[in-house]
Prior knowledge:
alpha/beta, five-stranded mixed β-sheet
Amino acid sequence: MNLAADPRAVESLLAFWADAGVEASYADDPIDRLAEGAAMLRVRKEPPAPVAVAAVATPAFGRGPDLGAAVVEAQALAAACADLPALAAAIAAFDGCPLKTQGARQAVVSRGPADAPLMIIGEAPGADEDLQGAPFVGRAGQLLDRMLKAAGVLDRAFVTNTVFWRPPGNRTPTPQEQAVCAPFLERAIQLVQPKMLLLIGGASAKSMLKRDEGILSLRGRWFEWTSSDGQTELPALPTLHPAFLLRQPAAKKKAWADMLMLSERLDRPDRPH
Length: 273
């Protein structure tokens, strides 16, 4: 592949290096460090000569949109959306999230009825979702749908994620990336007006509930999600991500218990928990 001819490939490669912890770029010519060390030992009584090293290079994607400005822009765009199609169009046109330029094919916004009493919020699109343009359509999504159908809530669920573009290598979205997308997600909640939220996976639960515990600690417990303006509160239930269940089938029992708890409260939302 000719990286110079494919800027998206370069951005994706830089993102991979950054995720791997690469923070510096060195000189083009090789340096024999062993020879340098031997020379320094021979002249120990003299101050060692400085070794020339290239300045630290900041990858281009790291100089993405200013977070504060991007959040303000997202808030303004989201507030102007009167319905879900307008919101989807605003998300697709939004350039403030750096994930958009890190190899994602398209924005992945939502699926499900616009008046659903249940909103399901996952972490981020994966490869299948990036290809098809809808959330939870791969193996993990198919397992989620089977569980929702068995619990009797599949046709009453609106499904989305905390971010709308696939992170490179299917990594977990960062809190900064979630923060930039949060105004759009909150506007979706306002438009759909669900009775409760199902938070899929640790990254979703931590972002929505502003908590630090792991998903194994959070799952199976009801919390209150509060909108940024404090005007809306909704019961929210964290549960295990279906991708985790595919790797750990024994955990399906816990996830199924969460689904039963959810369906019971969805049918009787005013019942004390």
